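Ticket #4471: complex job returned nothing on first submit. Input attached below:
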Amino acid sequence: MSAQHPDDEALFALASQGREPPEAEPFALEPVRSHVDGCAACQTRVRRMSVGALLLDEVRREGSGSGTWEAPPMSPELLAVASQVASDVRSGRLRRPWRPGVLHLAGGTLLAAAAAWLFHVRSAAQGSPDPSVAVAPPSSPAVAPGRPGAGSTAPAGERGATVEARVLLATGGARVCGGDPDACQRLAGDSRVAEGARIDAPAEGRAVLSLVRGWTADVRGAALVTVGRLRAPGADLELSRGEVALAPGEAGALQVHHDRWTVIPEGPVVARAELGVLRVVVLAGRAEVREGGASRGYVGPLVLELPAVGAAREVPGPAADPRALDLASLRAQGVVTVALAQGAAGNTHGTLARGVPVRVARAPTEASPPEALPAAPEPSPTAPPTAEPALATRDATADEQRFLLASARSVFASCLRACRAQGTCEGTMSVRATFNAEGTMTSATMVGDAGAGARACLEREARTIRMDHPGTPVRFEIPVEQNNP
Amino acid sequence: MVVSGTATTGMFVRDEDDATPGYVARAQSGEPRAFQELYLLHRRDVLRLVTRMLGPRGDVDDVVQEVFIQVFRSILGFRGDARFSTWLHRVAVNVALMHLRAGRSRPQLGRELPAEQPTPEESSPRDQAARNERLRALYRILDTLSEKKRAVFVLHDLEGVPAAQVAKIVEAPVLTVRTRLFYARKEVYAAMADDPTLEGLARELFRDGTADTASEETPR
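Support reply: We reran it on our side without changes. The output follows.
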């Protein structure tokens, strides 16, 4: 008998022979069996697990047989709901929040295709870096502008000028999709997206968009966001899944929809949709929450849960989400531009776009460089204050810490997955990092309980993090978030 | 109902039947009968999933009804991007989790017995009582999982839904689903090994002959 007990997965594999869960890891059972034969403690664990495996198997097998599963008739309450919904649909009181089918869109599709072609010609003439994503794909928008019934401050079909959102940053395979999920294109920095586009950011990707009236959206965390309305007066975002962080612009100009909920922020918020709950971190300022005909205002900092079923509720939680707003840093280093479409108000998106610069600052470090825009630089109101030049190393400011935490979260993800699988990343870990005045990391030292492989991976990946010219050497011990999915 | 089954490690995963898309389209056009057909076609799947999510309790029928109320009210929001069954599973999981949350915020006197339970045919009251006891033991363990892990564990390991489809249901990347499943299994197996009451059930199971030869071969 070896001194070290087999782990529970191996013991369960032994206990559940013939009843393994689907896609279970294969185990070499002989060494496990020989250990268990001489280990009383392991025999007890296996005995209990074998009962557990039987119970799981019993639950699995039920339901596939005939049994007593016949459906009873619909209850009166359910019949009433079905009848009411059917009646509302027929009377037009209930409408689809999306455009049903290509035939209804034939005209719009033709217009969009023509616009895309025109834009392509113009972009080619201007030497646009990536014209393919400058307009929504011609397969039509998936969500109609001005989502009906969402309590929009701007009525459906509002006749404001169509605008395009500017992509400030696109990393990790973030894509833009049209109505056809197979017709997605990779987003690039400085490209543009139009009304109806769907932004798909994988778990480790992100897309930062400059929307309208100063609003910036950071789409990330396996997010799918549809730009439902993108007009000069305001924009609607439909968050299907994942996370979007919003840095504020003009109050009331942006609405975020998920399921039956609409959130109209006035300050910075982070919204995350998962498992039927929209979790909204209101970092500061007021946010209005609408559902059906009801509306209620909340003032941050606070955390709200807006469930698929039931009422909104405030929940205890860290309203100062450390990952929430590194947008300030991004805005400070990016170009925030609204490209107003030419032509009449309410024109189909995708008409020839002319960039109207609102604010120009340094080029983003992670995205492809933006085109030169003929406007005078204007400092971002949210940019971190410029530090006095100094040789001494200082601690990272709160803004810098937020930026570093957010960067580290995506950078460390692959290492964490690997070391979780190997069971070598338990306990508290952090990376002690120092950056020079230009923002390049000069040292990264792992602190904590990680195994050698995880340590090397975390130190290596940490070195890819770059700060935005802090002006003086900076140090910060970056915690490794164990709950990083 | 046309149900084609795909056997996966002894379980049964239902493919979308041929009739459902038509009924969905008719329901979206406001035809009342189509709602009833959708209910009759899918109620069994929803009942099974909700039962597996919640375990033995008396309000499973209420939860199933709540699922269909949500489905009917949001039927116009179903775009057909995914299969109807995926969307339905998502609603069912969400409603079940809401009920679990609500249950946690209320004082509980212990698990209620289910009003309607899918049971093997010809089971005696004694068998049913023993079976409820076993289910209670299992769901005491599942109750220790977080919501996200529980949803993934039930869908994958009990319902037999492949990880890629679970990802669509819970709206998370496949990698995240696999991570949650890994930790859920780890926690469940550890909880089983630490639960002495399972040994009492072992005696009952082996005396009843519920356990087949495979389990009797496990080491003592």
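Chain B touches chain A through 95 residues (CB under 8 Å). Closing as resolved unless it happens again.
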